[in-house]
Design a protein that fits this description.
Rossmann fold
């Protein structure tokens, strides 16, 4: 799969609607993550009007906001959570990073639509900037490409395996 830049994706996501839920804390970094995710979605054929962007205060608020977006917007095919938690001088980093990761993991299992995890957890701001940069790690684009890959799998499975085992299938 092609990574970074405005390259054409191997996954065709034409006609799909994707929500980006972006934490505003560390906004310079999270806006770069969102730009990378948006670029990856556009490269895969998602059109600009089918990309919704919603903002929350910080990484702790990502999981509940993703749940609300998916619950209230039945036309959303996938969601990408984007945030940055940078280690400080107190244990707050550990609490927020763990809560964000566990909340999003539980939600990913419960939602039954693809949920991309684009939350950086770094020791320094410089590390976060490098990972968020589209010329560097492009973790926003990586999270979007991962969610599109999962969406492609879910779509193929729904076409070939119509049996439902105790949970809702879109």
């Amino acid at each position: 799969m092609v990574t970074g830049g405005a390259h054409k994706s191997e996954i065709d996501a034409t006609g799909k609607r994707v929500a980006l839920v972006v934490a505003e804390f560390n906004e310079q970094i999270t806006s770069e993550l969102a730009a990378g995710a948006r670029e990856a979605l556009l490269a895969a054929g998602v059109v600009e009007p089918d990309i919704e962007e919603h903002h929350v205060a910080g990484a702790f608020e990502l999981a509940p906001a993703c749940r609300q977006v998916v619950g209230l917007r039945q036309d959303i095919d996938a969601v990408v959570a984007l945030g940055a938690v940078i280690r400080g001088e107190t244990p707050h980093f550990d609490i927020i990073a763990e809560a964000a990761a566990q909340g999003l993991q539980r939600l990913a299992v419960d939602l039954n639509i693809p949920l991309g995890f684009g939350v950086l957890t770094t020791d320094t701001r410089e590390q976060a900037e490098q990972r968020a940069s589209r010329q560097g790690g492009d973790k926003g684009g990586e999270a979007a490409r991962a969610v599109l890959s999962q969406l492609s799998l879910y779509t193929r499975l729904a076409e070939t395996e119509p049996a439902v085992r105790g949970f809702r299938v879109r």
